[in-house]
Amino acid sequence: MTKRDVRILLLGEDGVGKTSLILSLVSEEFPSEVPAKAEEITIPADVTPEKVPTHIVDFSASEQTEHELKQEIYRANVICIVYAVDDQDTIDKITTYWLPTIRQTLGGETLKPVILVGNKSDSVEGSTLEKDGVLPILNNYAEVETCIQCSAKYLLNISEVFYYAQKAVLHPAAPLFAPGKKELTENCKKALIRIFKICDEDNDQILNDNELNTFQRICFNAPLQSQALDDIKGAVKKSSPGGVVNDGLTEQGFLFLHLLFIQRGLHETTWTVLRKFGYDDDIELTEDYLKPNLHVPAGCSTELTHQGYQFLTALFEKYDDDHSGYLTPAQLQQLFSTCPRMPWGPDVNNTVLTNEQGWITLPGFLAQWTLTTLLDVSRTLEFLAYLGYMYENESQYSAIHVSRSKAVDLQKRQTSRNVFQCNVFGPKGVGKTNFLQGLLNRNMQIVATLDKDQLSAYTINTVQVYGQEKYLLLREIDVGLGDFLSHRELNCDVACLVYDVTNPRSLEYCARTYKQHFMDGRTPCLIVAAKSDQPSTTQDHELQPIEFCSRHKLPPPQLFHCVDNISKDVYVKIATMAAYPTLHNAMGGESSWLLKATIGLAVIAGLGFIIYKYKLKR
């Protein structure tokens, strides 16, 4: 069977009319002769109310064994226990035999929906569920979804029996409603509160008419009529004080509305909403909803699209209710209240731009998601789902762009990427942390105040490259003379090798790292002379920094210091080298690069003039 096929098993004592119910449904008349057991019947999807294929299975204790009974219980999606309203013994057997047998077969933790069916309602005048004594069963057994009386002889409520059986599978009540407490289950409340927060687009804790109409259109593909809207608010206001405030639906009112749907048997309404927001039959977000399969070929990277940035910007502004441009810890906690956990730790405050109190700004918020998307795109996909991206978008795919391979970029000598990673190598103490924090405009005085236990190995910020805004991600990597570096540590767009001008042994680390890992590769490299505000010392190496760079056709050492003002040119240079990797060999010196560029332009101009003259002659 497919996932949405429904298999209905009819159980009950011999003679209660199980087989007659099946035959009456199929032939639309009461059978004159009834066999001991009906063969399995399959009803096509197009003739069932819920439009799903339905398999109806009869069981006969006189024809089948207990082992076969257990097999059928396992295979069924829903079980109808049929009793005769004129036979108290068949009613007693519901709780003394049939329900205990089902529970024992499935195990205590597994509950399949059960429908109680009172057949032969025509034989007892004035028969009701209350008189039958089955209502207490409905209240005491969580798996019992509903009770219904019918008559196979007079074709009364026959189709309704199987309709409710289908509903019990496709829209089960047990995950939604706790009959003992007469309230929504905790899982259901939790899911609906998440949905309420996502739909509350202005974050005022009320769903106004526009928000309710958007909700109705997205979940049910139909507008909510003005009268229907007033009726909903009237019903909530009547029974749930505090459910309607300022003519809008509160969280309390939203929960009560769904309780009302369930109590009136409209389980499918709540299930439609839950499934729209990614929930399965156990009211858990599905794996496919959280982590759709996104193929990222080798050499490609992942970035947020304009649509992704738009969503995250709107989300930030939704919770920045005082329009301050930053989120307080309480506001940030509220923003992620639709998620089961925070997506990052306290080190985020030392990874991206914050205000003076260390609270994340909008540029910092977008930068952190840029970092997450580059390094762990599955986490971005997961949290976009938690945060409600699919409320007005079909899937997370529209928020993610997979770049083409770096090899293709090199071949075509251009790239459309906007996020570049620079790994910063150097031994401990050369100033890598200051270099990373400098990207966030933090000088040494500010860095000295940071909590060392919450320092991050990454920083990210935007940098202008020829008038275009690019994201530059720095990753700090400590290296010793004999350290092994993994592929992940070496995988970057630019390698930055940092030495300390005051430490005569620090260049040796840069030189060895370059020769071992980058000399024969295609990764652009830049030597950075840290602490350049202090007097430099001669390096204990066969070549001094300028000579080393010249020998290996690298750009001259880039001076960097951050005592007061920060040398920001180095970040622009790194981002430029990443965006134009084919130029890194030409950048052995600024003058040589400019010379080559000038010669190239002159050659192009000369060729153009020759072609022009040739065309004139023709």
Structural commentary:
The protein has 618 residues and is of the alpha/beta class. A six-stranded mixed β-sheet has the order 2-3-1-4-5-6, sandwiched between helices. The chain is elongated, with a radius of gyration of 35 Å. Mean pLDDT is 89; it is low at 585-618.
Please sum up the structure shown.
This protein is an alpha/beta fold. Helix 21 links the parallel strand 17 and strand 18 (525-530).
List keywords for this structure.
disordered C terminus; 19 strands; six-stranded mixed sheet; about 625 residues; alpha/beta; 24 helices
Task: Give the termini distance in whole angstroms.
Answer: 76 Å
Strand content: 15-25%
Mean pLDDT: 89
C-alpha-based Rg, rounded: 35 Å
Helix content: 40-55%
Count all strands and give the number.
19
Largest sheet: 6 strands, mixed
**Number of helical elements:** 24
Structural class: alpha/beta
Uncertain segments are: 585-618
Basic shape: elongated
For the biggest β-sheet, the strand order reads 2-3-1-4-5-6
Chart the SSEs and their pairings.
Blueprint: E1 6-12, H1 18-27, E2 41-43, E3 54-58, H2 66-75, E4 78-84, H3 88-106, E5 114-119, H4 129-132, H5 135-140, E6 144-149, H6 158-170, E7 177-178, E8 183-184, H7 186-199, E9 206-207, H8 209-220, H9 226-239, E10 244-245, E11 248-250, H10 251-263, H11 267-276, H12 287-290, E12 302-304, H13 306-319, H14 329-335, H15 362-375, H16 377-387, E13 400-402, H17 406-412, E14 419-426, H18 432-438, H19 444-448, E15 458-465, E16 468-478, H20 487-490, E17 494-500, H21 506-518, E18 525-530, H22 545-551, E19 558-560, H23 569-579, H24 590-617
Parallel strand pairs: 1-3, 1-4, 4-5, 5-6, 14-16, 14-17, 17-18, 18-19
Antiparallel strand pairs: 2-3, 7-8, 9-11, 10-11, 12-13, 15-16
Helix pairs in contact: 9-10, 10-11, 13-14, 15-16
